[in-house]
Amino acid sequence: MNRRSLAALIILNTLLIVAIVMASFTAQPTVAQSFGSDGENYTMLSGPIQGRSQNDGIYIIDVQKGNVIAAYFDGSSKKFVVIKGTNVPADLRKEETRR
């Protein structure tokens, strides 16, 4: 192995280590997953719930209708608890009429 290839490997390894360190310290607060069939399209997000530091929640969105449900899993009762559901387009129309 000559000096040039050794230097290239050292630089490459250094860049890979920096990339791994940066990726491990970068927080990703939400993760999304889409699912559905027969013309239905849903997106599910996970993330923190305001006021509940011990539980992360899931947010299920019906993309076509604009319905959103926020829920979390209660470990003691082993059930999902729905916090709130709403229809975003209807809420936006209500807000527009208030102005």
UniProtKB/TrEMBL annotation:
Protein's recorded name: Uncharacterized protein
Native source organism of the sequence: Poriferisphaera corsica
Lineage: Bacteria, Pseudomonadati, Planctomycetota, Phycisphaerae, Phycisphaerales
